[in-house]
Design goal:
Elements: H1 2-12, H2 19-39, H3 47-59, H4 67-101, H5 113-127, H6 137-158, H7 166-190, H8 194-204, H9 217-232, H10 234-240, H11 244-249, H12 254-276, H13 282-294, H14 298-322, H15 331-353
Helix pairs in contact: 2-4, 2-14, 3-4, 4-9, 4-12, 4-13, 4-14, 5-6, 5-7, 5-8, 5-12, 6-7, 6-12, 9-12, 13-14, 14-15
Amino acid sequence: MGGVRAAATARGGVRAVRPGLVAAVLALALLVGLTVAVSLGSVDIPIGEVWTVVGRRLTGAEPEPGTRDLIVWQLRAPRALLAAVVGAGLGLVGTAVQALVRNPLADPYLLGISSGASLGAVAVIVLGAGAGAGLGVGISTAAFAGALASFALVWTLARRGGGFSPLRLVLAGVGIGQFLSGFTSFLVLRAGDEQQTRGVLFWLMGSLSGAQWSQVAVPAAAVALGLLALQARARSLNALLMGDETAAGLGVDVTRLRRELFAVTSLLTGVLVAVSGAIGFVGLLVPHVCRLLVGGDHRRLLPVSALAGAVLLVAVDTVARTALDTQEVPIGVVTALIGAPVLLYLLDRRLERS
C-alpha cells in the first residue's frame, strides 16, 4: 500500500507535514471556541465562571443558585457541543463524498443527500407526525430515510447501463437534489400555519436554536461510529483515489466499498440534518482545506477534517447567535458568506497551479 499512500499524498497537493501538530492545534482551538461560545451572548459570562459552572456540574457538586448556571449549562453548553458534533460530522461526510466521486469539490448537496434528508424531515414537520415535537426521533428517522432513499435513487441512475462513472453520479445527484428541493419548497408553501412555515424555512437554512442535552447523544454517537467506520476503510479510500481498476487490482471490492460509503454518509447526513437543518459549504470546504494542510491520506485526513469541521461550526454558530442584537442569523447564511469567497479563492489558486 506504499504506492497508495504516495498517490493519496499527491492527490492532496502537498506532502503531509506534522499532521499530529495540526490535530493538536485544532483540538486546542476547539476547546477555546467552545469556551468562548458558552461565554458570549446577550449576557456575557466571564470565562472563569464558565469553567466554574462546568466543573461543578461534571464533578456532581451542588450547582450555584442563580441564572448563570442555567445559562451556561442548560442553554449554551448543549448548543456549543451540538455545533461541534454537527461540524465534525459534516467534515467527515464531505471527505467521504469527495473520495467517492474523486472530486475535492464535492459535498453532500452535490449528490442529493442533504436534499433527501431535508425533504424527509420537512414532510414530518409539515404533514403531521412529530410536528411540534421539536427535533425528535421521528424527524431523525424521516431525515435518514430521505437521505438513504435519495442516495439509492442517485446510485441506481449512476449505474444504469453497467459500470460506474463519477461524472454520471454527480449529474444524477444534482438533478435529483434539485427535484427534491423543489418538492420540499412545495410542502413548505402548503403548510397551513404561517408561523410554522417561517420556522421550517429558518430551519432549512440551518439552526441550532433550542438545542438541549437530549439532542446531543444520538448525533455524537452517529459521528463517532461514522469516524470509526470510515477510518477502518481509510486505506481503501486512498486506493479509490487511484481509480476503480487500480483499486480493484489492490484487492479493494470497489462496489462494496461504495455501498458502505453510501450507507455511512446517508446515516450521518440524515442525523445531522434532523438536528441542525441544512448547512452548506462545511462539507465542501473543510476537507478541501484540510487536504492542503495534511495531504490526501485518509488516515490523517478524516480525523483532521472532523476537528476542523467542529471548530468551524462552533465559530459560525457563535457569530450567527451574537452578530445581531434583535434576532439570530441562520447558520447557512453565515457559512455561505464565509464559504463562497474562500471557495472562489481556492478555485483560483487551483487554476493557477494547473
